[in-house]
Design a protein that fits this description.
Rossmann fold; single chain; about 450 residues; 15 helices; 6-stranded mixed β-sheet; elongated; 4-stranded antiparallel β-sheet; alpha+beta
């Protein structure tokens, strides 16, 4: 080694990171995600120098993405040769990123990341971790990227030093410091030609934006890391607060929470629907506003969110409904009699012999059905909508799902509409045509009013 001054300083910095975040506490094995680039070879070499000191076994895994042909094969061979020289166990795996991206309508970068981490995930458990070569420079790029895209405070945490079975020992080192280590120790590394393509946002940030920020303050990368750490600590506090209310669904109780906790709880409730979409700042603000307004006036509110998720607030509780839930009706099964029946959530049903009976004040929508006398002696019930529901209207047996679609009934509203049935089955759903045999033809009969007093 020609000059070990920088190497000693670099090792001291990595030791500090390993110890501060307890990255290797209780760990027996470390697998380095080894692409062959300068960052990953610096990581592998650093851990090679520290493995005896920290008492872990070291190995390397290279993922060939099958994107760059001979260039990718060259990268794999470079990695293999370096590990052979250092006596580091080496494995490689080949994944077909182009096919996976095409089959799943993904961009190349996203598809490569998913397949890469699938392989890494196989190597993590309570005693073994995967080390990735993210640096302070990568963290700065992530902050800029998230800030430009729009993010909550969580996005300003940047790249976490530890995430599950993954550790980032170089997260406090800058790209310049990594390059100095590589140069000082003549470490072999490869250059991925796609990293120079500035049509990729991260490459553009790396090539154009970060250098300008370093002109303003050469310590910007370290400062960004400090900011990320501060925000991470704040996040931990707020996540603990959210945990105290994780099962809270009462509209009034939720409305009493401060915005910092409630906004995070809204995001958590959304994530529990299983949807892979992402809430915007505006989405979160709209949900919070709906919760507070409903707590004040007891008016039901519904908001469509990304990924076919619907938020519902009524005077009792708040719910996030995914696509399956939205299509699952919420009307209770109940037998009806003459007079007014309250079925909850600002909905009432009036059955009367008088067409002009007074309706309750403050109603929002009224659906009216004039029915034949035969229904007066029959049992009328309302129930939830069920899969395969259908009934005869206009001389044709129609599925309810198709009738809703043809009538352009909003997806989120379908679940709140009661299904009216008699002994023959469905005879009416508000907003749709009635069954052919129940229309009033010769005077008399009964009248059914479905009344909504809340906002829909």
């Amino acid at each position: 080694m020609k000059d070990s001054k920088h190497t000693a300083s670099f090792l001291a910095k990595v030791r500090g990171t390993l110890d501060r975040y307890r990255m290797l506490e209780g760990k027996e094995g470390v697998t380095v995600a080894y692409s062959g680039g300068k960052d990953s070879v610096a990581l592998l070499y650093t851990l090679y120098l520290l493995k005896d000191e920290y008492g872990f076994t070291l190995r390397a895994l290279h993922v060939n993405h099958s994107i760059r042909g001979e260039e990718a094969d060259r990268d794999e061979e470079t990695c293999r040769e370096f590990c052979l020289r250092k006596g580091i166990p080496f494995d490689s795996v080949r994944v077909d990123v182009p096919s996976f991206a095409r089959e799943n309508s993904l961009g190349t970068e996203e598809a490569a990341r998913i397949l890469r981490y699938r392989e890494f995930d196989k190597l993590t458990d309570g005693k073994n971790v995967v080390a990735t070569a993210h640096t302070a420079s990568d963290n700065l790029e992530t902050l800029i990227f998230n800030l430009c895209r729009g993010t909550s405070a969580d996005g300003l945490r940047g790249i976490p030093p530890v995430r599950g079975g993954y550790v980032r020992p170089l997260i406090d080192a800058t790209s310049d410091e990594v390059m100095a280590l590589v140069t000082e120790n003549a470490l072999p590394y490869v250059f991925d030609s796609t990293n120079s393509d500035e049509s990729y946002t991260r490459n553009f940030i790396r090539a154009k934006i970060s250098p300008l920020l370093k002109e303003i303050n050469p310590s910007v990368e370290g400062n960004a890391r400090s900011t990320s750490d501060c925000i991470s600590k704040d996040r931990e506090h707020f996540q603990n607060e959210v945990g105290k209310h994780k099962n809270e669904r009462s509209t009034k109780a939720l409305a009493a929470l401060d915005d910092a906790v409630l906004s995070r709880l809204v995001v958590k409730l959304y994530s529990e629907t299983g949807d892979s979409g992402q809430l915007s700042y505006r989405n979160v603000c709209d949900v919070i506003e709906a919760i507070r307004k409903t707590a004040a006036d007891s008016v039901r509110r519904e908001i469509d969110l990304p990924g076919r998720v619907r938020f519902v607030s009524d005077r009792e509780e708040c719910r996030m409904l995914n696509d399956t839930d939205v299509n699952t009706p919420s009307a209770p099964r109940k037998s009806l009699s003459f007079g007014m029946t309250d079925i909850g959530n600002g909905r009432k049903i009036l059955i009367t012999r008088e067409e002009n009976d007074p309706l309750p004040a403050g109603y929002k929508n009224v659906y009216k059905l004039s029915a034949k006398n035969i229904l007066e002696t029959d049992t009328i019930i309302i129930r939830e909508r069920e899969n395969g529901d259908a009934y005869m209207t206009k001389g044709v047996l129609h599925k309810v799902k198709k009738l809703f679609s043809d009538a352009k009934i909003p997806l989120g509203k379908r679940g709140s509409l009661p299904v009216f049935c008699d002994s023959k089955g469905i005879f009416w759903i508000p907003g749709l045509d009635a069954r052919d045999d129940v229309f009033l033809r010769d005077g008399g009969g009964i009248y059914i009013f479905y009344i909504e007093t809340g906002e829909y």
